[in-house]
Each structure stands twice: as structure tokens, then as C-alpha cells.
Task: structure prediction
Amino acid sequence: MSTTAETLSSDAPSPEAQEAASETDARGRLLAADGTPLKLSLARALRRQKLRALALVAPLLFFVLVSFIFPIGGMLLRSVQNDIVPDTLPRTIAALEDWDPASDVLPGEPAFAALYTDLVVATERKTHTRLGSRLNYAAGGYSSMLRKSGRLVADFHLDWFEKKVSRDWDEPEVFTALFGEGEGPAAQALPKTAAAYAAWAEEMREQGEDPAKEEPWDLVYAALVEDLRAGGPALTGYSGPQAELIAETLAKIGEYDPPSYTDAFIKSDKDWGDPDNWAIIHQLSGRYTSSYFLAAADLERNTDGEIVDKPEEESIYIFLFERTLFLSLTITFSCLLLGYPIAWLLSNLPLRISNLLLILVLLPFWTSLLVRTSAWIVLLQQEGVINDLLVSVGILSDSGRLQMMFNQTGTIIAMTHILLPFMILPLYSVMKTIKPNYLRAAKSLGATDWTAFWRVYFPNTVPGIGAGAILVFILSIGYYITPELVGGTEGVFISNRIAYHISSSLNWGLAAALASLLLIVVLALYWVYDRIVGIDNVKLG
Amino acid sequence: MALPVYATTGQKIWYYAFRVICAAIFFFLIFPIITIIPLSFNAEDFFTFTPGMLAFESDAYSFKHYDDFFNNEDWQLALSNSLKIAPMATFLSVSLGTLAAIGLSQSHVPFRGAIMAILISPMIVPLIISATGMFFFYSQPFGFSDLSIQGTYWAIVLAHAVLGTPFVIITVTATLVGFDKSLTRAAANMGADPVTTFFRVQMPLIVPGVISGGLFAFITSFDEVVVVLFLGSAQQKTLPWQMFTGLREQISPTILAVATILVTVSVLLLLTVELLRRRSERLRGMSPG
Amino acid sequence: MKITHLLGATAIALVPLATLAEDLPPCDNCADTMTIVSWGGAYSSSQLKAYHEPYSKLTGVSIVNDESSNEAVAKLRAMAEAGNVSWDVVDVVASDAIRLCDEGLAREMDFNEELAAAPDGTSAEEDFGDLLVSDCFIPQIVYSTTFGYRTDVAEWNGREPDDICDVFDLENFPGKRSLEKRPINNMEWALLCDGVAKEDVYDVLETEEGQDRAFAKLDTIKDSVIWWSAGAETPQRLADGEAVMGSTYNGRLFSLIEEQGQPVKMLWDAQVFDLDGWIIPAGLPEDRLNRALHYIMFATDTQRLADQAKFISYGPARASSAPLVGKHADLGIDMAPHMPTDPANAKNTFLYNYEWWADYRDDLDAKFQAWIAK
Result:
């Protein structure tokens, strides 16, 4: 940080400070008018100036951070978030902790029991199919597994109870009579049931339902079965409300084994019997996951947890990224090819004429993107202006009309047109500064036209080429609208796939992962651009 | 760069060939935009030239697609939405952007590079990424669903304002680069306080930059479709939204009528910017203009 | 957005008001505006004429139309995440309705309580029958995805396709085909024409080999296919002659043939039925819910569903509406023979398996897009 007066701008404590500078204190330091040492005074002024600059920038900076940077950050976070699995299956995941997915054996009954509990809650809260959609991103089939099992678990114990033990338990009144009063004799006789019922009633009240009118979730019946089978003196000697029903049920309950969760799940959908399906749940049990990024790079984890390539017929994203890069490069190159002569012409014509011609460059620049895209649709389609022209001139037969749209050709032509001004303008501003003397000097030294251009002029334009090319490349790599309208299937970019996953397939995590990868490429180029050109030197019009 | 008298035949050929190539490229730039203008007066519902049009028969031309634009309530809603959204977004971009540009052009701004990079980023980040980010954010800002402005007028205005600010910063900073600091010093010397100095000395000089930045911001909002597609609801549809869905479904020549109107508006805006640029350069004594 | 405030407007009442007013109970504690989401275009305008206008006239409610059905699931999910649902009634296809219902984003209906019974007293549940594919979904129409072909293709030497497999027959029926850019329907048709029996299609498609088989069949015509993603594209291409045959929704082909008089015919063989209808978003405040239910009760009764068929050639979802289907409002032609459900058209139909696709959509879609791209 320099404190010499000349680097300070107009706002430095100029007249007074300079006048005061002639005074010195006892130790020989220069003093300002108010008697403080000049160095200190200048530093203070500098600080004030910095603060003022920051205060001017702050509102916009805050605005951009809050309404732009923050939203993008939040969206990118979705690419690693995986809350739905641990939130929906907390008990199952705990039960799977000791299970070895590579062992190729099915998890034991406790895991199925935990899955039952999780699924009852999920089914009642309607999150189970959402979990199914999430797991489906890893492998097909989960959606129906969870939907079928969701139906099963909703009345799992009740069905068994009604079939084998007693038909009188499905009335809400039974439970209200037993546990409605809170701590009563029933709660001592059936402690687990009471706890399960209380938890359930709490949830009902939260949802705005009256527990006295609703049939309890199957979890309450599961607790009841457990309590009844455990027996105990409080239960056998029970004499509170519904004593008759309890005694009757108690007498019968011992005759039958409660159903096995494992069998029931496999019966509801045979896929639960496949250890591979459990391995995927085990893999995706964390709150954060790399699976979306793996998918975005055409990779996946096999059941042993190793990262492997996706089968070739499902690999698409690397291919799409490559195509996006290829098309962007082609577009950048065609812009350079068309832009260079124009920029050269503009910079070598008298200002009056070149300003007029510049309007021809700026007009497309100022014309709506959609207007230009629709113009190209009008020109390029099979029944369009260019084909009509070629047919009427006789170059093409009516049946041999060219397919120039809904393919890469369409995307390249339309986007070259749209981005061409972004190439011409930086080239022009660089070429304007190259003195014609250089070329003359080269020629007078005996260089041919070509050598003079290639060895002298061209190297001087390289900064302009760099600026224009990077700008065009950055803009084209993230394009969405034009490829969507004229690109068909071959001419679309990765952006179109991101949009598809956001609004159609709803695989938001994958969309976020693809967007992150795209953003990394763009930011890297942005950084390069800043190094070469400097963001301050972007010129518009 | 006229052809010197001593040019060889090869040089002559190249000289004219080069002119022809340049003319072809200018043709490529302008032709598509010009083509749609006559087509928008097509009396038929096609978007190719009918034989009648080529023979310049008067009944092959009509204003019916313009009629459709001015009488169809979908298009009118889109137009009025565009006209409500763009000025407000422009106002926000211009006021915040000008302040920031003035701040950034002071001589000592800490973290200038980083701040500049952040402020310009809305222009660089692919729109699809910005749009999806805002789509999630505006439905639940900072996790508070009560603050949701998803699908409202303000969601689009705020989004467009952010997208427009880089243009304001770039143009205003550019006018400030050539700004002669001795002018403010002189004003201060004559006893003007900083506020007076700003409004009486600095402001008149940067006004052209502010206006041209504002025009850029306006056109950004007026032409923007990706963010509107994601954030907007049908009630907030704008002209580009209507054009985009129209183009995806099927081209109706009404789109070409709208396009022609927009081209006219662009030409007017372009001329305004050009005049401002000349005025600014004259004021700053940088070029004869 | 069209605000249709029809009090005092000169809309044509489709049925005498007296009978309506009797049938329609008053609405207690109901909001007086509502937002209805649908597809836009001709379909929305048929709903406007058959449902919205009479309902507004009867009740004075102003209806705001939103045309976001295409993104309904994504937007409803984002709205629900935010806890701020601004839609009251949403028109979606059955598969979307199932998804919304599964995720708890749509409200479960009590069909017999909340929908009108048929005029003869048949309960709503019985009247809709098998078409009630989800607890949240009130079907409106049966539509089908089927093929149209040009009748003036010289290379065909007067032959006309009459079998779905003619789509795969480039020898007898050369020319471009316009197919939808998604696996649904295309995979099924490919397998059917590769000799798989109709009832086995999904079992075969579930296996790796079955999928390869379908792709191999599609490969035989891949070079002659132009892919579409919006329903208007096929009719446009058929009209332009850019394609000689192509799949799309039957209503679009109807307007191409009957309203625009293009030389195109329908190939009804192996048409795939699908349903479109209403859902009410979950968690609406009481007054808006009451209004939505009141509207649904009106708009899905027997007469209203039959009325819609006057404007667009989709079959009403209620059995009791079928006999009431009359003539086209403008063209004056009988609509019944143009319904996908008409016995002459429905000789060989295919049912789209919603549950199966819910499971395999993501997987197959990735494969399909990769296949198209290469």
C-alpha cells in the first residue's frame, strides 16, 4: 500500500494536507493541518476512500450475491444431497450397518422388520414412491417394489390379526377406550402399544386429524402383537376397559406365529429377495452422495461399491459434453473465419464508412434472439426460403430438398449468425490500434503480401482473436434456446439435457450435477478470459 | 486502403475478391433479418414467399398478421407483461449498476478483481444454470417458503435485473475510464462538496454510458426467455415466452409480424446508442465524432 | 391468462340453465376466483367452451387459465416444497396424475361422494369404471396416440398402410416417418412388429434382450425417422409432405383431416389409449378446495363430458356420456365415428401400462436418448 501523494486521487485531503505538509513534529514527521502525523492522516483518508468505494459497490454486490450467486450455489448443492434415503429409511439403514453388500446374502429378518417400520411411516406420509423414484435413478424396478410393498405394509399386522386372531380390533373406539385417558391400567398391561399409539396420535394431531376417528397405523398393531405375545402379569390380570376383548385375543394369540417380514416382502415383490437391490440402498444411505456426479460422467457403482463405466448403451453424457464442445468449437471457428475479414475491412476503411458498416454488424447484435432464430427457421426449413430458391433456380429437384434444420447444420448456421458480432467487435477494437506503418515497413523490406500479413499483422491481432474466441465459446457452450428450436436431436447441447431433467424427468440431482460440470468449464474459461483480456476490457458496441 | 496504382494483377484480383467475400458476410449478417420483414405482410398463412408476393401483387400482401398481434389477447398480454417487466428491471439494474460502477472506478477498491468477477458473472454463467438456480431459490428463499415469490412479477423482475447489471457496469465503467480526475479536483478546489461535484460534474459526463447501459439492460430483459420459462407462470408470460412456445408448436406468421416490430424497435435503440456514443465522445473530447 | 368473467356476456349456453341450476348444489364457503391449469391450444378452448364458460355463467366465478400442464409435475413439486400452491385444478395425463398422487401432491378423491352420478343413477365409480386409474385422478377424456399417413404418396403405388407394422416396412411404404422422441409407445410398437404377442410385450421389454430387440427393430427405420416432441409437429410435417406417416394424438389428426382438409388418413391399428383428466393439488385452503370440488362436480358430469366432444375428437371418459356425443360444433359432422373408442376404430388397441413405465421410464429413457444420439 503506497501513501505517496501522487497515487491518491482527488479525494485525498489535498489542499489542506499539502499546505500542512510543510510542518513537522518534534520527531521530524510531517504533520497534517490538524496536527496528526501526515502518514496517519493519509492512511485514514485512504481508508475512508476505500470504505466509500465499498459502500457504493455494496448494494449491487449484496443483490447479486443474494439473488444470483446464492441460488446457483443452492442448486449445485442438490447434486450431492441425498436426504430422501436416510430420512425415509432411518431404521433400515441402521439395520444394514453390519451387513456386507459384497457377501451376496440377503440381509436378515431385523433389516426387513426395520424396512417394515420405515415403510409404514413413509406410506402414511406418502414419501415412499418418491423414494422409489430416487432409487430408480440407480436401477429400475424400485418404484413398483415400493408401491407394492407400500400397499402390503399399510395393513400388514391388521390383516393377519383379522384373519387369524380377532376381527374386533379395527375400530378406532377400541383404542380410544384403552389409551384415550393417558396413563391407565391398559398402558401398564400393553406398554409398547400405548407408546406406539401415543406417538401415532401425536402425528395425527399434527396433521390436523382427530385420532379418535382414525384407524391407527399398522405400527400400533405390530406393537400390540408384541405386547400380547410377551404376556406378563399386568396383562393376564388386566381388568380395565375392553378386558374381555383383550382376554379373548390373548387366548388365541399364542396359537399362531406372527408372519415373517422377509417372506411377506418377497411375496409382495420378488425383487426384495435380490441382494443387489439391498446393496443399492446400502450404497445410497448417506446424506451426501456422489452418485449424481458419477451418472453425469457415465459412471456407476457396481454392487461391490467399485466405480465402473456404465454400459455403453446407457452412456450419453460424455458423448453430449463432447458434442457440445465440438459444436461450440466449430461455431467459434466459423465466427472467426467470417469475423476476421469483416473486422479487418472495418478497421481499414475511413471512419465515416466503417461506422456505417458497423451498423450492419450491430443490428443483428441488437435484434432479439428469438427473432433471429425464427428467421433462420424460415430460411432453413425444407419448405423454407433457401430450399424454395434452390428448387426454383433448378439446382435442386423438389424431392431432393436439403435437410438443413433439425440437425447440427441448423445449429451451427444459426448460432454462428447469432454470435458473430461477439467476435467482430473485440477483433475490430484490437485491429483499430495496429498501425498501418507496420505492414508498410514489412513490405518495403521485401516481404510479400502474405508474409507481411502472416508474420507482422496477424501476430498483432492475436489478443483480439483470443478475446473474441473465448467470449464466443463461453456463450455458445451454455446455449439453450436456439439448439432447442433448430437442433432437432443431433444438434442439441448439454443445456437442453439439463432442462429436460429439470422439467420432464424431474431428476433434479442429475440436472444439478450436469450443471455443475458445465459451470466448471465455463468458469475456467472465464478465468482464462480475465487473465488474457481482463473483465474490465469487455467492450459492448 | 484504396488499391495502389502499382498493384499487380494478382493483387487486383485479391482486392476485389476480398470485397466480394466481405459483402457476402455482410449479406449473411443482414439477410435473415431482412427476409422476415416482407414475409410478415404475407396474405397467406405460410412463411414462404407466395408467387403473388414475388410478382408484387398488392392482394398478396396484407396486415392481417399485425391485426392478429394487436387483437389476440395472448399476444397482448405478453406485450403488456414485457412492457411492465423490462422497465422495472432496467431501473433496478441501472441504479444499482451505476452506483457500483462509480465505486469500482475509484482508485483504491479492495478486492476489486474478485468483486468485478462476481458482478459480471451473470453475463457469463449459462442462462440455463442461472434459471434453474433461481427456479429452486425463488420458490423457497433461504428455506423460508413464506417468502416464496415463485411465478410472480417480482421474481422475473429481480432475475432480469441481475442479468442486466453487468451491461450497466461495463458501459458506465467504460465512460469512467476516460474520465479526467482533475475535473473533480477542480470542482473540489472551487469549494463544491462531493454531492454537488457528482451531480454537476461527474453525472453529465457518464450519462451517455448510463443510458446505453440501461438500453442493454432493457433489451436483455425484453429479449430474455429461459428465465421466464422457468420462473414465470402463464400470467407472467412475456413476448419472447410467447414466441418460443409458438415456434416450438408451429410457426404462425404472427411471429414474423412481432419479429418485424421488434427489429424496428432494435433499429431505433441502436440509433439512440450510436448518437449517445458520439455525444459522449464529443463531450470528453476524445474524437471528432 | 384469460380472465373469463362471463356475467352478462353473450356466451352460448349449451344446456338450458334451469336444469343446470337444479343439478348444481350451491357452494358454501367457496373462493370466487380459481386458477385452472391445462394444455393450451385447441384442447383448452374445448374446455373453455364446454366447462369454464357455462360454469362462470352459472356461478359468477372468474377463472384464470394457466397453460402449464406440460410442466405441471415439476412446478407442483416445487410449489409443494415451498408450501405455496397457487393452482386450484390441474389437467394432467394419467401417468402424471399417478405420480402426483403417489407423491402426495394431489388430493385423494372420494369419487362417489364428490362426483355427480350418471343421469340414470349409476354411481360415478361405476360410470368411470376401469378408467379410475388413481385415487386422485378424475378422467375427462380417452385419447389415443396413433398414426396418420398421406394418401397421395406416388411410390406406394396406391397401397395404403392398414397395419401398425407397415410403419416398419420401408420396402412397400418408403418415406420419412415422424415418431415421438421418447421410448413410450415406440418400444411397444417395435416389439409388436417383431412378433411379440400383445400380452407379452411388457414382460419382454423388462429384459435386457427384449430392449435390444426393440431397438434393433427401430434401427431398421432409424434413418427414415424425424423425431417430434410437440404434438403439433407431426400434423405439420404431414401437411408439408416432409413426412409420409407419423404418430401423434388422434385429435390433432382429426383437425388436420376434417378441419384443414389435408389428404391424410388415420391408421387406427394398435392405437395406444391414454387418459387425460383433472387433479386437485393437495393441501389447498378450505375455501379454494370447496370451489375446486364444486367445479369438478360440475365439469365432470355426464352432459359436460359429452359436450366437450363437440369441440374436439376425444372420447368422454364416462360410459354414460357416450350416447350423448353429438355433432361437431362448427363442422356439423357426427363425432362418434371419430372417437378413438368407436368400435370401428378400436378393433386393435393397446393399453399403455402406467405402472410398468413408472418403473422403467428413467432407465429406458437414458438408453433411448443414447440410442437416438448415436
About this structure: Chain A touches chain C at residues 125-127, 129-130, 132-133, 136-137, 139-144, 147, 313-316, 319-320, 323, 382-383, 406, 488-490, 497, 502-507 (CB under 8 Å). The radius of gyration of chain A is 37 Å.
